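User: Predict the structure for this protein chain, please.
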Amino acid sequence: MPKSLIFVLVLFIWGSGQVLDSIVRYSIKIDYYLWESLGLPWVFFAIQFASLSLLVAALTVLWEPRPLGLKICLAQAGWMTVYGVISTALIFRDIPGVREVYMLGREIRGLSVRPEAADLIFTSNGIWSTLIFSVIFALLIALIVWQQRWWFIDAEDAAS
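Assistant: Here is the predicted structure, written as structure tokens:
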């Protein structure tokens, strides 16, 4: 496996852990708060389980390449972008509430709570910057996967 795909594999493992953490500790997660504030807390769980399923599929095809692997990994990168845009739109509906959930979540986990840092994060510029960073990151993952598409194509040739 090329080193660049090992990097993607590690990122997807980390992402899987993040999703599992969100499912287990949903009550202190911003995403849950966003959907709950819309009266749709079940959507949070549907999205998290769909995300986990896609991540597990991507991990599987990275570890053991299969013909659909390229599409699955690109779909994961695309999903990261789509969900980032959806979350950002929902954050703008209630920035003070999201900030409060963020601070509470850090406090519950025993992490430092710095209001001045939260004041920088939960501004329009901070939120847009985070979205732009996450979109660039997802594009980087898609680019790496695309550049290494032979990893999946060779699996298709081997399967023939």
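The radius of gyration is 18 Å.
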